[in-house]
Design a protein that fits this description.
The complex is a heterodimer of chains A (338) and B (530).
Chain A: E1 4-6, E2 11-13, E3 18-20, E4 28-30, E5 45-49, H1 50-60, E6 66-69, E7 75-77, E8 80-86, E9 94-100, E10 103-107, E11 129-134, H2 146-162, E12 166-170, H3 176-184, E13 190-192, H4 194-204, E14 214-215, H5 222-225, E15 229-232, H6 240-244, E16 248-253, H7 260-265, E17 270-272, H8 280-290, E18 294-300, H9 302-311, E19 316-318, H10 326-337
Parallel strand pairs in A: 3-4, 4-5, 5-6, 10-11, 11-18, 12-15, 12-16, 13-14, 13-15, 16-17, 18-19
Antiparallel strand pairs in A: 1-2, 2-3, 7-8, 8-9, 9-10
Chain B: H1 2-13, H2 17-30, H3 33-43, H4 54-65, H5 69-79, H6 82-89, H7 101-111, H8 116-127, H9 132-142, H10 152-163, H11 167-175, H12 185-190, E1 205-206, E2 208-209, E3 223-229, E4 232-239, E5 242-247, H13 258-265, E6 271-281, E7 284-285, H14 288-292, H15 302-307, E8 310-320, E9 323-324, H16 330-342, E10 350-352, H17 364-370, E11 376-383, E12 391-392, E13 397-401, E14 405-416, E15 425-434, E16 437-444, H18 450-463, E17 471-473, E18 479-484, E19 486-489, E20 497-500, E21 503-507, H19 519-523
Parallel strand pairs in B: 1-12, 2-13, 8-10
Antiparallel strand pairs in B: 3-11, 4-5, 4-6, 6-7, 6-8, 8-9, 11-13, 14-15, 14-17, 14-18, 15-16, 18-21, 19-20
Helix pairs in contact in B: 1-2, 2-10, 5-6, 6-9, 10-11
Classes of the chains: A alpha/beta (338), B alpha+beta (530).
InterPro entries (chain B): ATP-dep_DNA_ligase, ATP_dep_DNA_lig_pp_1105_fam, DNA_ligase_ATP-dep_C, DNA_ligase_ATP-dep_cent, DNA_ligase_ATP-dep_CS, DNA_ligase_ATP-dep_N, DNA_ligase_N_sf, NA-bd_OB-fold
GO molecular function, one term (chain B): ATP binding
Protein name (chain B): DNA ligase (ATP)
Chain lengths: 338, 530
């Protein structure tokens, strides 16, 4: 059975006549989560998970035509049963499950298997065909546990404070910023950049409770920030605002920081491998749990990951998509930051 | 290991020398005596020889993880470092081993003569008892280099900040002969085993790039003009039968140039002379690239000495039989230097820097442009009555370099770098037009900013043809201006030419691949076909 096909506009559901996370304008788009490479402008109609709705409106405009469903709440579109299931990537992120005449396809969008105590944890779903991301699809990417990561980041902040330095974390405003907030909750007063602040308000609009933060005003008093914690989007690395922060020690939070070369590439004081994506073992366990007959691998290390799946007896193919450009996020961050 | 691991993390993340120094000082304040001695040993390149072969470590890692070799290699090419790749791939530790650095080092030394099976036992136990970062450091201690940018000079500056002892004195102390098992840290840094009076160098006198028209310098009579050489500026100190060679970066490099030491031993006098260390073969100066092969080796092999012999072009004399003559005018120092060098038959590889005779300023440009033919970088202009200044001072000494040759070429291959550059495509191969196609002319990896490299890496990721392995063929689209120091015909290269010392001058975003040079145009740059 051929339920979906990969087209120039995005992943298309043939009987359902809708697209999953399309990158070109279409009539009916089902969206996995609010990141810029998955939720784009110009769709006539959007369907997403409930917690994503305020985020999409915040990012794409209040006037978009949008409908939302709760996790596990099915809806039939042209005879195809559509439902959202937790992906654990960012708040409101969902795997999209399609069922038609007993044939099931699951598209992950982006996902993380480990529980971050912030997003609804990832749920494995059995399916015939599984379309998975592969951002960190190499066996060198294995994340520390949440507790170890938290310990490292706490230690870093304490060390900074002992040297009279202000700790600045750089992380994308949707997802990473809230992760950092959660990891740093209770350590010291946290300030967030306005791009993050506005998004936090949008998230809280869906009734989700976030750790307490304060808006970083441009006319801040230096003594207020000294030794505190500040979170801002990565686009602001090297910005005037960052330079104004008194005695700043900066850290990038990203899965790519797992590799020394990446940590050292940027002129920062630390790099923490805080990722909203599944690591190698996470990808492997997710794939196995689906018991899928065929696995399509999208953005990331798709060539390597799908070759390896084939070798261990899971039929797999790589698919070219327009996802995974963290740069698009960066552009958006810049826009939101300015 | 935890403490040492934190030191390495702190050092490797920063590119600010002062932050590295602060991290080292913090470490020295808390480290046990023996570990401090090991830090000096490791950062001065005196590490013991590798006890376990990398091929074995690779094999054991694949055994433990069960990954196929191609996946291991794919990961390796993504990380760019074998020890790190292994550290990242291994499963989480099952227990925790905590031992001081000196114990690890002693165990690794003892491991060397053991059987492969015993080695495997030891390494696997360590791997399963260390956190990721510690595991990485353990792998690095076994062999390879840290590549974290701690030069001897940085280490010495940290030791100096920690102890208050003069940095050059410390340089002599740590370079001198000492044995980790028979000296205390305090005695080592106090220099109990050396005589600093014999090695103490002077600060180098440095020149600025010429920034005015030649006639503005005044009467040509008042100027001494010499060739400028692209080697290693060096100061040779000979006092009381001891010989020391200092590099401009204030590192002691004596042991790297035995042929200079033996040449100096033939002199009876005491002196301090300034000059250029150059690769010198059959009376001709070789390129810096060649000289580079001789540098930073633990031992200079006989083969190396024959392949790339080194010589010294003497520029100046700073001390003569115990007397500091730096404030004397240059003409006086030159005469003294000539007297010294005439006092005996000089070996072929010790030469006095030639003075270029000229009458009018207008003659110099042509002389400068011909300098490239014998691998000189251009000219040095020195005021005849100038003292030997401390450091860089404007007005008395000028350097006037030849303009590089340039071509426009298109990038066709890209490869990831190593160390700090391992995450990006930083090494490129360039081509020019030949008939209807392209032909490779140069490889270059320097000259771009980090921002440009990031942008190019993104282009490579989007436009690469291969999916596996370290080299990517890319769509010929990005045009660069490549500068180089010389060009010659060569039948070893497909293009028929060899460029010397190519580097990227700038990214020509304004040019398309249609506008790059042809191989014929490149060949026209050859002035003296050999």
């Amino acid at each position: 059975m051929k339920l979906v096909k990969f087209t120039k506009k995005g992943i298309y559901c043939i009987p359902g006549k809708f697209y999953l996370d399309p990158w070109l304008p279409v009539d009916y788009a089902i969206i996995s989560h609010g990141h810029a490479d998955h939720a784009r402008n110009g769709m006539k109609y959007y369907l997403c998970q409930t917690d994503s709705k305020t985020i999409l409106k915040h990012r794409l405009g209040a006037d978009i035509q949008i409908e939302s469903l709760n996790y596990n709440e099915p809806k039939t579109v042209n005879g195809v049963q559509v439902s959202f299931h937790p992906a654990g990537h960012v708040i409101g992120s969902a795997q999209i499950r399609l069922e038609y005449k007993g044939f099931v396809v699951v598209f992950t969008g982006d996902y993380k298997v480990k529980n971050d105590h912030l997003t609804v944890p990832f749920e494995p779903i059995k399916c015939h065909e599984f379309i998975t991301e592969s951002t960190f699809g190499l066996p060198i990417y294995n994340w520390l546990s949440e507790a170890q990561l938290q310990q490292q980041m706490h230690d870093w902040v304490l060390k900074n404070q002992s040297h009279n330095r202000t700790s600045v974390f750089l992380g994308y405003s949707l997802g990473k910023a809230q992760r950092i907030m959660k990891l740093m909750e209770g350590v010291d007063k946290m300030y967030v950049h306005s791009a993050i602040h506005n998004l936090n308000r949008a998230i809280e609009g869906s009734g989700i409770l976030l750790p307490q933060t304060h808006l970083l005003n441009y006319d801040f008093k230096k003594e207020d920030l000294q030794n505190k914690i500040i979170i801002m989007p990565p686009g602001l690395l090297g910005s005037k605002l960052l330079k104004k922060i008194p005695n700043a020690a900066t850290a990038i939070c990203s899965g790519w920081m797992q590799i020394r070369g990446n940590r050292r590439w940027q002129a920062v004081d630390a790099g923490f491998a805080v990722s909203d994506h599944a690591d190698w073992n996470g990808l492997m366990s997710a794939v196995k749990a689906t018991e899928a007959e065929k696995v399509y691998v999208t953005h990331g290390s798709q060539a390597t990951f799908s070759k390896y799946l084939n070798e261990i007896g899971i039929p797999s193919a790589e698919v070219k998509t327009e996802y995974g450009a963290e740069d698009d996020d960066k552009e958006l961050e810049k826009k939101e930051a300015s | 290991m935890k403490h040492f691991s934190e030191l390495i993390s702190a050092i490797e993340i920063t590119n600010k020398t002062n932050s590295k120094i602060d991290a080292l000082v913090d470490y020295l304040k808390a480290a046990p005596e023996k570990d401090k001695l090991w830090i000096i040993t490791l950062f001065t390149g005196k590490r013991p020889s590798r006890p376990v072969k990398t091929s074995l470590m690779r094999q054991w890692c694949m055994e433990i993880t069960g990954y196929p070799e191609w996946l291991f290699l794919e990961s390796y090419s993504s990380v760019g470092d074998l020890g790190e790749t292994i550290a990242l791939m291994l499963p989480d530790p099952t227990h925790h081993i905590e031992k001081p650095l000196s114990v690890w080092m002693e165990e690794l030394i003892a491991l060397r003569p053991k059987s492969d099976l015993e080695k495997k036992d030891y390494v696997l136990n360590a791997w399963s008892g260390l956190e990721m970062q510690e595991r990485l450091i353990f792998n690095k201690l076994i062999g390879g280099s840290f590549r974290i940018g701690v030069s001897k000079k940085t280490l010495v500056n940290a030791l100096s900040k920690y102890s208050g002892i003069d940095a050059n004195r410390l340089m002599h102390s740590i370079i001198g002969n000492w044995d980790i098992n028979s000296i205390s840290f305090d005695d080592l840094i106090q220099g109990e085993h050396i005589n600093y009076d014999n090695s103490k160098p002077y600060p180098f006198c440095l020149a600025y790039a010429l920034e005015k028209e030649l006639p503005e310098l005044g009467d040509p009579e008042d100027w001494q003009v010499e060739y400028k050489w692209d080697g290693i500026r060096g100061q040779i100190v000979k006092r009381n039968d001891e010989i020391f060679i200092w590099s401009r970066g204030e590192e002691l490099v004596t042991s790297q140039f035995p042929e200079l030491v033996s040449a100096m031993e033939t002199f009876k006098e005491n002196f301090v002379i300034d000059g250029e260390i150059l690769a010198l073969k059959d009376n001709a100066v070789l390129l810096f690239n060649d000289l580079q092969k001789r540098l930073n080796r633990k031992n200079v092999s006989k083969k190396m000495l024959e392949e790339i012999p080194v010589g010294f072009y003497v520029y100046d004399i700073l001390e003569w039989n115990g007397q500091d003559i730096r404030t004397q005018p240059m003409t006086y120092r030159r005469e003294t230097l000539e007297t010294l060098l005439a006092s005996q038959t000089l070996p072929n590889h010790i030469l006095i820097s030639e003075i270029i005779t000229f009458n009018e300023w207008s003659e110099l440009d042509a002389i400068r442009n011909k300098a490239r033919d014998f691998n000189s970088e251009g000219l040095m202009l020195k005021q005849k009555n100038s003292p030997y200044h401390t450091g860089r001072k404007k007005g008395d000494w000028w350097k006037w370099k030849v303009d590089p040759l340039t071509i426009d070429a298109v990038m066709i291959y890209a490869q990831k770098g190593s160390g700090r550059r391992s995450s990006k495509y930083t090494d490129y191969t360039f081509a020019v037009k030949k008939d209807d196609g392209l032909v490779t002319v140069a490889k270059a990896y320097s000259g771009l900013t980090d921002v440009e490299i990031t942008e190019i890496s993104r282009f490579v990721n989007k436009n690469a043809i291969e999916k596996f392995g370290p080299v990517r063929t890319v769509k010929p689209e990005l045009v660069f201006e490549i500068a180089f120091e010389g060009i010659a015909l060569s039948n070893r290269h497909k293009s028929g030419v060899a460029l010397r010392f190519p580097r990227i001058l700038r990214w020509r975003r304004d040019k398309t691949v249609d506008e790059i040079d042809t191989i014929e145009q490149v060949k026209q740059l050859i002035t003296n076909p050999t």
